[in-house]
Structures are given as structure tokens and as C-alpha cells.
Amino acid sequence: MNLIQAILMGIVQGLSEFLPISSSAHLVFTSNFYKVFKGIEIADQSSQEIFFDIMLHLGTLIAVLIFFRKDIRIILKAMWKALKTRDYSDINAKVGFFILFGTIITVLIAYPLHEFAEQLVFLPFVVGLLLLITGGILFLSEYLSKKAPQKHEVDGKTAVFMSIAQGLAALPGLSRSGLTIATGLFCGLDRTTAARFSFLLSIPIILGASMVYPIVKLDLSELLSYNWFEIIVGTVVSGLVGYLCIKYFLKFVSKFSLNIFGIYCIIIGIFTSVFFYMNR
């Protein structure tokens, strides 16, 4: 991994983590395009590459924490107050407990899929096919949401369905933000509320993944051998780009349709499926 590759991967992660286009798919595509053009076997993936992907996600997690710092503070205070008074009527407290409960649901869905998801890294043409599914779901959510009245608060049922969608998005190509926002729209949420809850819902799961893999899978000697300058640069870039992406995506989604992302997913899905199938 060189500096240019690290910066490029950071930009890709920062953009695609919050746009409904699957960050994991784009990291798979970017990494494997590089391997194809360099003549490197696609089935070859080092532990440093896996760790770098995790660090890129950590960069975008920091972006979420900074951008939603006021919301997070309000939610935590409301949860603490609710626990002390046993009054759970505050919507901010409800959102906090929905996120905690939703994280458990996400883990229960995602964990059985993790081995299959890891194998898909070496099957980028399959990831492209899954990206086509994301595109179709985005189109369908826009179509159906226009036929139902919109609500501006997340309820328990919506939180459960969005958490299930987040768990399924463990598979690269199924966009986490795309599936969760689309599920919110299916359940009647307005776009902005669906997007905000989607981003907040991602915090515990990204934090957990960023902590668990290095502890369970890596040893100290491996970590010391990595190209830390490139890893840090890529992480910082992903965080900066991610912060700007959240800011402008929330403005975009409040006014415009998600269909543009559906079109993008379908075009990229077809192209990558064909390209990587021919270069297996």
C-alpha cells in the first residue's frame, strides 16, 4: 500500500459510508481494481489490508461522533434521566434505547453472515450483483414512500426493521445507509429523520467492529510491521471527507430523491460484475 492508494481509499470510504452506495463494496472494488491492474491475485488479502479497512471505518465513525456530538449528548442525558425517573416518554431517551436494542438485533443478524461476507471480498463480481439489489431497493423505497403519510419520529417497530436492515448490510454491496434509510422510508419516516437515525444507529456497530477485530485477530508484532503513516493518512482523510459528506447529504436528502443513488448503484453494479467476472 502506498500513500496515493491510502488517500484514494480514504476518500472512497468517506464518501461511500454515508451515501447509500455501500462503502464496503467500494473498498472491495478499489482494492481489487488496483490488484487487477498490478497483476496481483485477487484472492490474496493481507491482514494489513483488513486492518486498514477497519481504520477507514473508524475515521468515518469519528466524523459521525463529531457531527452529531450535540445530539449524542442530549440522547445520553435523556437516557440517564429516564433510568433515574423510570419515565421513558422523552423521544430522545427512546431513540437512545432504540439504538442500544437495535445494535443487539444488528449483531444477531450480522454475526452469522460474517464468514460469508469475508469471502465476498474475493468475489467482487458477486459484490457488484449485491449493489444492483441496493439500487433496486432505493428505487422501490422512493416509490412506496410517496404513497404513505410521513412521520418525523422513530418508533420501536421502525427501529427494529432498520436494525435488521443494518445487520443484512454486513454483506458488501448491500449498503448499510441505503438499506437502513430505505427501510425507514418503507416504515413511513421522512428522509431526514431516516438518515439521521441511520447514522446514529451506525455508531455502536462501527465502534464494536473497530475494537473487536484488532483484539481478536491481530498480534502486536503484526501491528508494528504495518505502514502506519499511510494508515493514519487514510484514516484522517476518511474522517474529513465523511464529515463533509454527512453535512451535505443531510441537506440533499431533505430536498431530493434517492433515485440518483439507485441509478449509480445499478450502473456501477453492472460494470463491476462484468469486469471482475471477466478478470476472475
Report on this structure:
The protein has 280 residues and is mainly α. The protein has one domain (3-35, 45-278). The chain has 13 helices and no strands. It has helices spanning 3-16, 23-38, 47-67, 69-85, 91-110, 114-120, 124-145, 156-168, 176-186, 191-217, 220-224, 228-253, 259-278. The chain is globular and about 60 Å long.
- Poorly predicted regions are none
Helix-strand string? HHHHHHHHHHHHH
Give the helix/strand class.
mainly alpha
Strand content: under 5%
Major sheet characteristics: none
Kindly state the number of beta strands.
0
Number of helices, counting only DSSP H or I runs of 4 residues or more: 13
> What is the helix content?
over 70%
Basic shape: globular
How many domains, as an integer? 1
Distance between the termini: 22 Å
Task: Supply database-style keywords.
mainly alpha; 0% strand; 280 residues
Entry summary:
78% of the residues lie in helices and 0% in strands. It is an all-alpha fold.
Please write out the topology:
Layout: H1 3-16, H2 23-38, H3 47-67, H4 69-85, H5 91-110, H6 114-120, H7 124-145, H8 156-168, H9 176-186, H10 191-217, H11 220-224, H12 228-253, H13 259-278
